[in-house]
Amino acid sequence: MSQAATEIVRISGHAGSVPGAGIDREFAVCKLIDTTTCIGCKACEVACLEWNGYTFSETTFNNSYQTMPETAWNYWNLIKFNEHETEDGNLMLLMRKDQCMHCADPGCLVACPSDAAIVQYANGIVDFQEANCIGCGYCVTGCPFNIPKFSPTAKKVFKCTLCNDRVSQGLEPACIKTCPTGCLHFGTKAEMKELAETRARQLRDHSGHRNAGVYDPEGVGGTHVIYVLHDATNPEAYGGLPKDPHIPWVVRFWKGPAKWIGNLALLGGLLGVTLHYFRYGPKEVHPEKGDNGGKP
Amino acid sequence: MTLQHPRCVFQLLKQQYSRYTPETVERITGIPKDQYLKAIDMFTSVRKDGDMKKVATIIYAVGWTQHTFGTQIIRTAAMTQLLLGNVGRAGGGVNALRGHSNIQGATDMAGLYDSLPGYLKAPTPADADLAAFLKRTTPTASKPNSWDSFNYYSNTPKFMVSLLKAMYGPAATKENGFAFDYLPKVDRDYSWTHIWEDMLNGKVKGMMAFGMNGVMIGPDTNKNINALKKADWLVVGEIYPDETSEFWRAPGISADEQKTINTTVYRLPCAGFAEKDGSMTNSARWVTWKYAAVPPPGQARLDQDIIAQIFLRVRDLYKKEGGKFPDPILNLTWNYADAAHPSLSQVAMELNGKALAELKDDKTGQVIKAGQQLPGFAWLKDDGTTMCGNWIYSGMWTEAGSQIQRRGTDDPSGLGIYQNWAWSWPANRRVLYNRASCDPDGKPWDPERKQVWWNEAQQSWVGNDVPDFKPDSHPKDHMGPFIMNPEGVGRLFAPIGVIADGPFPEHYEPIESPIKNPLHPNQSSNPLVKKFNSPFDKFGTPDEYSIVCTTYRLTEQYHYWTKNNPMNVQLIPEPFVEIPVELAQEKGIKGSEPIKVISARGTYVAKAFVTKRLKPMTIDGKKVYQIGLPIHQGFRGIQEDAGRDARTPANLLTPAVVDPNAHTPESKGFLVKIEKA
Amino acid sequence: MSTQVISRTRTTGEPGRHILRYTLSERIHHWVGFLFYAYCLITGLAFWSPYMFWLATIVGGGPTARFWHPILGVAFAGSMFWMYGMWKRDMQITEADRRWKAAIKNYIENEDQNLPPEGRFNYGQKLFFWLMFWGVIFLLISGIGLWFVESIPWSLRWLRYLCVFLHVSAALATIGGFIIHVYMGTAMVRGGFSSIIRGEVTADWARTHHRLWYEEVVKGRPPGSTR
Fold first, then answer.
1. Are strands B603-611 and B576-580 parallel, antiparallel or unpaired?
2. Which residue in C88, C91, C79, C90 sits closest to C28, CA to CA?
3. In chain A, positions 131-150, which contact chain C (CB-CB < 8 Å)?
4. What's the complex ipTM?
5. How far apart are CA C7 and CA C19, in angstroms?
6. Global confidence as pTM
7. Does A296 have pLDDT greater than 60?
8. CB atoms within 10 A of CB A197
9. Three-class SS of residue A260?
């Protein structure tokens, strides 16, 4: 969570309108990750920890270059490694920086029940406001990228902020700042999209990666973190990047129609019993005939 | 030139390499012929149909140099680039990637035992006096046919005398050969492995190791540890307790044995890289000044402060007690404002050089007053009127101020020259031999990407980069672009004495190899390689040790000291050995299971990293497995101290055999066997 | 169950006219269960809809509500399982229930005189019991899934979604039952509410609503033998 003051366009668990909704005053920001020029040095992992003030984690070797199996509440940025065998028998060591994708349609925010625990800024950053987080973990269920992580000690959920505190002060995110190969870029969504497409074209035309492309999935309305992949037809090979991510339909149903069906059912139930009472009233007790002759 | 004479270099070259058919390359390297041809076709495609516009570069690291035939490989690359016209071009050349930010600076400043600053040759006992030394080391121009040569090294006397003036000041006079006799004479090989061999044999009594973990970094760790046991004293300047300063408690040394080790170890806390200022020189020869971020903690001191303390006290002792030959010590220039704490900017100014008398350029009339900083090495004199600590660095700290602190990010040519960012030697040239970026008429091969060119109106070479050429040499005079060679041309053929090996590179197998060299089985490995005879210099044969092993570094760790930093340790928490899936299956080894890697010299224990990245190879008809292991962990560090790994340094395995030219050990190819731990 | 005719004088002062319907133990368990359920209901509704999030405030705020909801949920499940042990024999569906069920329209319209006689619990009460019993099992299993959502591997994430679906569905079903239960126990069937507090009903009440049970009690038959 950051303290930055940026225009808020969406608020989680919020009953009512959002002041910044629909505004178009700020540029949408975007992080571009070119997996084709990443060397897996993990400098971004350390930069992320350093900037966000987290200490190191105890890790063990697990037959991989990957620091840990998946991101953690205090480890927001993880390079995922995969020894990928291509169809022509070649081996590619695929490396993908995994972190919050900052979806335009964020599953975490949709799922969150707590007022303003998750906000979306006009620049596209989806940020957790831990002060308001109740630690229910609904965002964990809502996210199609397996990003929000629960802290058992803090009893709150944490994730990458896209360095909103830096971005709002005109700086680039810490991971971008530290990347030694320049595989990470930061700018407006439009610029990054163009740069990504240019790079993908270059890969298709000159490097024999015929399926090279840009990962900016429409299922979540596009993301503010986009990838250039050697093979955009197989994002799963890049440490399980979902091919067609979308907010789980259960979550959509739960936070959409189910809410109204449920609420109406509850109201209906209350109304039903009330009307029943109006119509029929309480049940009467019938005294046993002959047993109590004195009563009617 | 017809290139047809049967004894001309070109024909000899063709003859030499006609033996390296794609089939032979496949047999030696295991690279399938079709893939090999694909790669060389791709690389040579830059000159397709005689197109001279494109450029290709070769980038390498110690994977090429750490062999007993490393120089052969690098020369092959250089010759390939010369033949393809990729030298002197922006985006071309042969580029070394270094393991430190300042390796280039170290060799520039005579980090090698056989050179003086600026790659001047070190004197030998045969150099009776300065004149003899200069005669031996100053090349004379050879002028084949019309190809003239600038032969810039003909200026060697100016560089040398200015160096001696910088070192010994007024004590260096014309009469005493500028105190040439003060310099030590190098009588034999004092390179890395010899130091340890000599220490093991009791010839080297003490060692000062600053920011250099000698036990870990050299080959054959066991030998180095045992050598240190024999030393009288050891001074280690470090930022962490390291394996060298604690060699006496390496795994395997019992408490009883520790009592028998009489080496006195002095451990000096030093400043870390972020705690000191100074310059770094990168592989592209950019000399860049850096500033201290934080002061050194506690009692830690700057390197130059420690060295100054030692020097001043030794000098006092010589002053008081005299000695066999106190002059080089007593007369050494030490003109720093604070003698006990020399400022590195003053050292840099000393390296740049200054005028000791008024100098005048007859052509331009420019005058440099006595005491002023020199604008560059063109002003150096061999009569004692200039001083310069390192001629190639002359120009980095001039009267105009420090050039190496510049941070200009303008790049008008768009070629990435960044002329105003820091300063590159020589003379702020960004690409060496850039005359070769033009055709013989002085026009750029690629008019879109102009580096330098001949300006007819000015009768001068001009450009976006500083021309690396005689500025007024008209193209029609055909001066060769390789101005540092007396021939003026690039060297496809190495003359006698330039390198230890033959004139053309040849393939040799490593000292430990799974096969005999298919080209000449009776001389399989480099004949110039010296093997020591100590009990630690043992070599394995393929019948017992059938697996090829290589060592390497990881991006997550920096040599042997980030194992003390939790941030790095969490990224790579434990040592591992990468082994092919097929080998793992053969041996029944599972991923993350501890295994032993055993060479003739030692045993390394780490967890198996079963990977598809390493595939079995077919070399000379044999199925050969290669395994690889990172070098970073040792027996001191966060995980080591917590007992979370086996505490075995990787170089326990490697042999102490080196390339005869560069003295680089053979860490990238030796034989091992593996078993479950 | 030690259901019996009370012979001593109670509020009416008339001897022999009151019957013990719920023992002290039964009443305590009912109300303990109620407290756990009510907490889960209030906090659950807070998590359910932004328009009810304010409910979290009255039970200590969002994080506190989130902290106790699963713990008291487990407690409620425990309480429910206790009630199961206590009442499962009384809650078996009988032939009388089936006859009663066929005539349920009369019950809804308060034409109770047209209803076939019922035992200690009528079919509707049993239905509510089994709804809560099975509801709690689903709530517990899915609730644990929601509680420790990260323990469900990402590769099995469909389980996470299933948990949400089950938890929400089961909760809504129990709430529906709960509304009817409260309505019936307070407004509709007078005497029911006091019976779960004080434990007693009048003989008339018993005869009217649970005649078979009444007859058993009068005859001194052991409970649960109505089957």
1. parallel
2. C79
3. 132-138, 140-141, 146, 149-150
4. 0.90
5. 8
6. 0.89
7. no
8. 15
9. helix
